[in-house]
């Protein structure tokens, strides 16, 4: 709170992922020695990357494939997968409509109600395919479908809102979800988010969260900051929430992973989040570019269908390779979007970190990758515009 | 004054709306519980948004519609509405002329004198349509037409100059407007602006202002900073002037609203101004995009017609929806320019603020949304340029 | 020196004109009351603006016109005007050659020797036209042609190098120009530059300078910073050098004007330089856009013809109006490049400064006009790209 | 470590070359008096510039020419020159393949094994051409081919990895290169890199390095920062490593040059690195633009062919002149990419530095050349887009 915006309004400076870089230390190690294993809700995974609960990113097939490749995918229980028995023609429409009709189409498609039997069916399809069934809902959806989900055999439940808190004021007609009670009553681990502050993280941990999603406003397909003015740059948000995790662990002995969610595109982004204290990351657009992704080369935000205040936009991300190439390589692109596991292991090797906890301790510098004149010159060269 | 520009010249850092973001607190609330009511000059309004006194933004019809929708529009008494009996063909010319002839045309059109009978007529048209008659003039115009306006039955009088002060040196031939005397003599509330500092705000409050307009230089259609070098970034200006309001209220018990004016485009911008201490905002270009706006999809600054030093430019903003969609939704755009009230309520819900005074207290972080390499990459993706 | 770049290398932050803005004070005044008069080398001028000694900016006609309009133009004695009896066909070639052949052409054209008789002729043409004969040369040229210039009746002599200092180490074969001796021996006032620091300014003042040019690297047509890495942002350079002027004045009672030179384009830029302590400014590209300018809509740097290390580039600036419109209005453009005197007077009125010395005292804020996402959005709107 | 990113994560601000500029001091000197001589591994050179060990930059002919012109070129022993007897058709393929197939082609071409007899042949070709035989390999390659290189008569051996350290953890199956032992056993001087910190520089100096390469992540054709998140801006990295050199020299009396490597394009960039403490620089893309360069107008990174995690990209840089023009002029371009020696000498003259050690002491300011609105306006003018 050391910066004075004006008389009577102070603020602190918050830092984004684009503003930092990682500094090598005293030793290096062979990437093959880097151990990227982590555990969430009692489930151990080799790759600390979760695919976002978005229509264009995770369907049953993706959830199964991600599990087999050592990662995890979360199925959105309030998206098209549980509103439509056959989501394929719906996806065709979403990805072929013109830009100007997109919001209206989404509002129309989401007018179709969610069907509990489809929730059960999707979970069972993932399980029978050999996948880990991780699913997500908003607090309202969680209250409605929580028990259905648990009984259907899901492994992990993500409760996600733009911003979640343990204290929610609602009109008298609505009974808000008591997160602590929900975590206690659910027979499966509950991951809560999103939040960006130390205090809320601590509240959510005390409520029994098995994981905390961190990030408001930074995503490529998210327009919260423009529409609501709300957002905290990701490096600061992750560091603050990780500090709450550490303090809670010190006090209780229970270690709960922090998952950075939003705005991460390259291997470097993932490495930087972990260096700020994250245990894992949740990413959307990098997976939307997989051949197997339901989005057919498109990616869109989950607040888009809001009937009164749509937020989030549809982005053409293209299709660049198989899910395996994107997750485990070999890379055929040199821009950090293929072989994310290889990038993480190589970064850990370069930085001398053998484990995720060691990676959380590496040195960080503030080094904004701003668009300077020099960089514009470089870009011009890259585009063959240099004299 | 802690930054040394060079020997003998110190400065302080001022912050713009683009450099800050809002941070969620300990609780959230349902948007329906957010109360956005405010009062200006004794008139209570549901929506703390005022449409700017600009030719392309407010005419009689817009003033009436804005009143009915819970907001407010200000009619410029020195624009084309009071120079021409029928402004429609004039607006056609302004919006169809080529870019290179625009300034010259405006200088020519403004050579036509203001007609007091048209001032009376416009005010009565607004009143008879059921609207709140809020009108504006420069200090020179206020001196000339003040009493005409009051007698015509106007409800609020805005006195606006690029920069207003209580001490104005003028040539002997000119008798400057005494703002204190004017406020005292006018039978209707007088709102004064624009200013950007604590001291001038305090002076204007002591002069009897019923509202203070804050903002110099930040508007999209304003070129003051380029032409004159003058301007203070809006977050700092609002926080400083709001502090003067608070101190004046402490001392006198009279609470006078601060209105952020200039450069605000999205719901997020409005939310951030209130979080810096504003009670309401004045916006132009978002309303210029309404189907009902007189600007026919264009927006232009009111200093443009200056015969010797035009400032302000004409911008093609397009027409994106009805005034109701822009103010109250439902939104058909996802970029924060539709359903401004919904955005404000949702932001207040996200931040746990039940009232405007609570919204003025939310936490702010310095989080520049600079164009970093990462963001350019994202934009490229959005444009389908990603590999 | 409070910023650590790395161990063993500290630096201070320097500020550019684009990073500051001017803040209104407690009073305002009618622009007609603003007195912009200044004095350089005993010559009083109404407008504190000097046209740069560049081939595309000042010829005999421009020097005469600028004098008549209340300003000043400096003729470069080492440019094409003194190498060619008839410069018109030369200017035609310079402005019609392709971009790739420009540097080679300039190197070729400058191989033609300077003719002392043309120096005399140009000075007499300016005088007989009723203009103030202000001319410039490099230190080497000054040593050669100084007495010729004085005898020809010139009024002011500018000695300009990229960087000038009183201590110049040279090979034994070369006798460097002793600036102090030169100032003393010349019968007309000598203005020296460019420099950017307090210490060098003080040295040059002690050497007898009648004016100090401040600015290295910031010009639009200057590539010193890219080629040499050398440069100091203009706000800091002006403030530092103005402090030396003040200290020297305190000590000796001799007041010597500081002239900001380089990178100034709009009225706002000029206002900001004066607010940082300058008494006047030297500008090139704004005058290159005049109908009367020799550059035919082009502007180029004077280090371009260097046979071994060309610096400076040719820019297409276009022709936007008459010299009178640019200097004194009325403006037909709204971007701050027309009616520079009107902009200065209006800015002084807005800021409450009655004289240049008062303008040097106005409050400045650090307010970077960086390209933020919001501004890109605004620009897109201005270009009609908004939805 | 004075900046708090978040609770529990602190960082320091690091500065890039684009963020600084050089400040003239109390004297200037004629460029002809500037002595740019330096010594590396006992070899004295007039020009402190080394051409990077990259396929598109240095082949036998370039190495010979660079030596004759007073500089130095390093041949990559693990690139195409030692995999293919005749590299010309290989270079044709690399530079004619489409952008999308580039990475795959490089991975395929590098599957061809390195041939020790070609290593010997290339070194002998350079020596018989009259050049200095400076060659480079990764630590793995150094272990394999070190003795072959020494026996073939090479003069300097560069051991380069993205990040090098004296402590390298490797799988049991691999015996890592002991850098200290390697330096001691090699009969020729060994230059080590890259590193970015004081501590590692000191370690490498103690290991016996005859030169230290500084720079991770800043290169135009390098994507380490995007892929791995790793990188330190060059001004800070050079200053830190130069401090280690100074401390080591104080202690031991052995002076070892620091070579800034990566991201340097113009003469100004080179000058700024030396001002931060470097003794010399290693550059790639400026030489890739020479008529003699093997890259045929293209430039690409050496981590590109990695079979699992390619980093680095291919850039079209164009061909702008002869190697002599680029190194020693005369320049036919005005953008700082021709006559690099002339730029260095002129900069030293402007700054009053007679030798490289004096140049290391010149004053630096933080002066970010960010893309401000003003600069965009300038650029628009340069492109003829000004009104």
Automatic annotation (TrEMBL), chains A, B, C, D:
Q: What InterPro entries does the annotation carry?
A: Aldolase_TIM, IMP_DH, IMP_DH-rel2, IMP_DH_GMPRt
Entries under SMART domains matching the protein: IMPDH (SM01240)
Q: Where is the IMP dehydrogenase/GMP reductase domain?
A: 16-296
Q: Which residues form the signal peptide?
A: none
* Stated family: Belongs to the IMPDH/GMPR family.
**GO MF:** IMP dehydrogenase activity
- Protein name, please? IMP dehydrogenase
GO annotation terms (biological process): GTP biosynthetic process
Q: Could you tell me the keywords of this UniProt record?
A: NAD, Oxidoreductase
Superkingdom in the source lineage:
Bacteria
């Amino acid at each position: 709170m050391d910066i004075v915006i004006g008389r009577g309004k102070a603020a602190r400076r918050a830092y984004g992922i684009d503003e930092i870089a990682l500094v090598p230390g005293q030793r290096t190690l062979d990437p093959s020695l880097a151990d990227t294993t982590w555990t969430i809700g009692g489930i151990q995974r080799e790759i600390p990357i979760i695919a976002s609960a978005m229509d264009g990113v995770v369907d049953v097939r993706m959830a199964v494939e991600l599990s087999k490749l050592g990662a995890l995918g979360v199925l959105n229980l309030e998206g098209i997968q549980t509103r439509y028995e056959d989501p394929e023609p719906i996806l065709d429409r979403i990805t072929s409509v013109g830009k100007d009709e997109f919001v209206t189409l989404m509002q129309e498609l989401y007018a179709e109600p969610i069907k509990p039997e489809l929730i059960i069916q999707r979970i069972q399809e993932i399980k029978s395919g050999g996948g880990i069934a991780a699913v997500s809902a908003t607090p309202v959806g969680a209250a409605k479908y929580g028990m259905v989900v648990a009984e259907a055999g899901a492994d992990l439940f993500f409760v996600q809102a733009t911003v979640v808190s343990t204290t929610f004021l609602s009109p008298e007609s609505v009974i808000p979800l008591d997160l602590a009670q929900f975590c206690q009553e659910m027979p499966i681990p509950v991951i809560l988010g999103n939040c960006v502050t130390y205090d809320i993280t601590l509240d959510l941990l005390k409520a029994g969260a098995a994981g905390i999603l961190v990030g408001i406003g930074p995503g490529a397909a998210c327009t919260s900051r423009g529409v609501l003015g709300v957002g905290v740059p990701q490096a600061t948000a992750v560091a603050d929430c990780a500090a709450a995790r550490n303090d809670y662990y010190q006090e209780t002995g229970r270690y709960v992973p922090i998952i950075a969610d939003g705005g991460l595109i390259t291997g470097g982004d993932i490495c930087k989040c972990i260096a700020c204290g994250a245990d894992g990351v949740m990413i959307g657009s990098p997976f939307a570019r997989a051949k197997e992704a339901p989005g057919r080369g498109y990616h869109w935000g989950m607040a888009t269908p809001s009937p009164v205040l749509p937020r989030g936009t549809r982005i053409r991300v293209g299709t660049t390779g198989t899910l395996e190439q994107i997750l485990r390589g070999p890379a055929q692109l040199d821009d950090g979007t293929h072989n994310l596991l290889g990038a993480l292991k190589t970064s850990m090797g370069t930085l001398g970190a053998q484990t995720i906890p060691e990676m959380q301790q590496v040195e960080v510098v503030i080094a904004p990758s701003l668009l300077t004149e020099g960089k514009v010159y470089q870009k011009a060269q890259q585009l063959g515009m240099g004299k």
